[in-house]
Design goal:
With about 450 residues, this protein is an alpha+beta fold. It has two domains: about 170 residues, Cytochrome c-like domain (Cytochrome Bc1 Complex, Chain D, domain 2); about 190 residues, Cytochrome c-like domain (Cytochrome Bc1 Complex, Chain D, domain 2). Helices cover about 20% and strands about 10% of the residues. It is built from ten helices and eight strands. β1 and β2 form a beta hairpin. The longest helix is centred in the middle third of the chain and has 18 residues. The protein is globular, with a radius of gyration of 22 Å. The relative contact order is 0.16.
Length: about 450
């Protein structure tokens, strides 16, 4: 068990319907659990809830079987239903806010795929002509309201933050970047985005909420745009519906079939899948249900994905926490290769997996986890110099020592028996499919 210092919101100040936060630290017991004997053994992250983290805006399909209670933290325009969240919902789906006029936030974060990438390609293509490739697969935006800003725990473990490398401090910060990214929405600057919102059908609502002269100050207006997107993600239960079969199961309203039950046991057991070490299957204190992520980072030693155009350059390596996209930790060579541990909720809806979109099925993902080191020839190309598998080849050789080889199921050697056989892999996949929202009992 590790003790982490968790950053939480401790005070808010409202000004013209715009919420500003001050942050403080609390200590909590945060667990990488060794569940060797009991399914659902108790060891949970104690993370205090950020004010306004609940749902209440849009629909999330079927009603959650769990107790969810939340209210908006932003004022509405008097006599109307206009709130920052309702405006954020319109911004989220507005394709006109991109240079191409064809890309919105929802283009890469589709509700039908759990607000993850809907593309069959490893990365999305943006820019003015939608021909500029990204370098990472778009992550899911579901359940991020329960995340914390990036921080180092007392034991030095990096935790929290948004994006694959945790560089964004808030959901608003995360929402800001795609508007200006050359391979995403590709606007020239914040003023260009503001001008498009000023011409949108919801511009009058925007002014009614944030002030009649809001568009006269592009920097402030852009802050309000991304603030509205953050409120939409925090207040709409679309982004945290808790309506999966797993939720109904934990509420005692449905039973798992035999295969799903076996898969849950494999998921939790520390001597089998050990998935719960990073994807806890029990409820933390700040959410109505399990989040299936501890919001930490891990270096998994993925195969290099040559379908990503940037990888055609043999000197280019995406190393997550230490760069090149994130720059403030460039001198932390020990963090090179570490990427955010995502929630496994709705994982069965995704078309691509991991930050580099290397795999396109859950079965592939699970097999990689349990056979990465026992059968490296299945995943990595042969090194021309040695004829042996060039393991962890999406990292430069001097950084491959950062790859996690100590935890189950990674601590096996080539030729040894994997922790899971094919039947157990299928059981685990069956359980993972119970994490899909929208279940109808």
């Amino acid at each position: 068990m590790r003790t982490k210092r968790i950053m939480i919101a401790v005070q808010q100040k409202k000004s013209d319907n715009y919420t500003r936060w001050r942050w403080g630290f609390v200590s909590s017991n945060f667990c990488r659990r060794d569940l060797r004997s009991v399914v659902g053994a108790a060891c949970a992250a104690i993370v205090l809830v950020t004010a306004g983290c609940g749902g209440g805006g849009g629909g999330g399909g079927s009603a959650s079987p769990l107790a969810i209670s939340a209210t908006s933290t932003t004022q509405a325009v008097p006599g109307t239903a206009v709130t920052a969240a309702s405006i954020g919902e319109k911004i989220f789906s507005d394709r006109s806010l991109s240079a191409s006029g064809q890309m919105s936030c929802a283009s890469c974060h589709d509700p039908a795929t759990g607000h993850a990438s809907p593309f069959s390609t490893s990365v999305a293509f943006g820019g003015p002509n939608l021909d500029q490739p990204g370098t990472r697969s778009p992550p899911s935006l579901r359940y991020l309201r329960f995340n914390t800003p990036f921080l180092f725990a007392s034991d030095g473990t990096p935790t929290g933050g948004f994006d694959w490398d945790g560089r964004a401090g808030t959901l608003a910060d995360q929402a800001r970047r795609p508007f200006l990214s050359a391979n995403e929405m590709a606007n020239a600057d914040a003023a260009a985005v503001v001008a498009k919102v000023a011409a949108a059908s919801y511009a009058a609502d925007f002014k009614a909420l944030f002030g009649a002269n809001i568009f006269a100050d592009p920097d402030t207006a852009f802050d309000r745009i991304v603030f509205a997107l953050e409120r939409y993600q925090r207040e709409s239960d679309e982004f945290a519906p808790f309506t999966s079969k797993f939720d109904y199961f934990t509420a005692g309203k449905v039973a798992f079939n035999d295969q799903e039950s076996r898969g849950l046991a494999v998921f939790n057991r520390g001597d089998k899948g050990n998935c719960a070490a990073c994807h806890p299957s029990i409820k933390p204190s700040n959410a109505p249900g399990a989040l299936f992520t501890d919001f930490s980072f891990d270096s998994l030693g993925l195969p290099r994905n040559m379908a990503i155009p940037a990888n055609a350059d043999p000197s280019y390596f995406d190393m997550g926490l230490c760069g090149p996209t994130r720059t403030d930790l460039a001198n932390r060579s020990d963090l090179c290769g570490a990427f955010k541990v995502p929630s496994l909720r709705n994982v069965a809806l995704r078309h691509r997996f991991f930050h580099n979109g290397q795999f396109d099925s859950l079965e592939q993902v699970v097999r990689f986890y349990v056979r990465r080191d026992t059968n490296p020839e299945e995943w990595f190309p042969a090194d021309p110099a040695t004829g042996q598998p060039d393991v962890y080849n999406d990292l430069p050789p001097e950084r491959r020592g950062n790859v996690n080889v100590t935890e189950v199921p990674y601590n096996k050697k080539a030729g040894e028996q994997p922790y899971l056989d094919e039947s157990e892999i299928q059981d685990l996949v069956a359980f993972l499919k119970t994490l899909t929202d929208g279940y109808a009992p």
